[in-house]
Write a structure and sequence with these properties.
The protein is of the alpha+beta class. Helices cover 33% and strands 19% of the residues. The chain has one domain. About 20% of the residues have low confidence.
Length: 208
Amino acid sequence: MGCPLKGLRYETPQVTTKNVAYVQHNAKNESSPTIGLIQHDGAMSKAGDALRIRVLFKTWRAKHKPLSIKVAHHGEVIHRRSVMARLTSLAGRHKAAEYVYVLSERRPDEVTPAYIGKTRSPAIRWNQHLTALGHGKGHYARWCQRFLREGHETVRFDLDLLVVGEAHIAFPPLPDFLSTIGAVEYQLVGLAADAYPLRLLNHEGQAR
């Protein structure tokens, strides 16, 4: 994969969620979906707000973790055929009309979302993504900079892909919100953009 890796920077997203506090009853257990939503009249610190929003994202991701595949381990090259085989197998076992997916990096401090999308065919969509990443042109140059070691074809961190069909969504990321694919994608992009310092590679749905 040849990628133009220089001269690209990331911005820190603005926290936009206001006047709402999210309360997690089991803060240390990422797999627990026991979350309450309460109104908050006072001003919340950006750090506290981001932490509470992050809890919602991490709880949803952990609940659906079994519906994930490994894209590549740290220091490995992304083998497109192997990834496609694992993805096709996963989608075949959990068939649905439409899917939402989350690509995450296992950075030293935590698992960080990098790209969120939806598709009717995970295999077709990710074949397109991985092929374009191999060329490293256009906005995929940003993918190269973020995922690959400079001057190499190996990944900087473990990459995991979560793929959830609409019929397998256990609950929406935001309590009492819709759980359709479009709604879940919108919620996940908003939560990730507000809660994590690294911007998603998505073009839409983030605070500017």
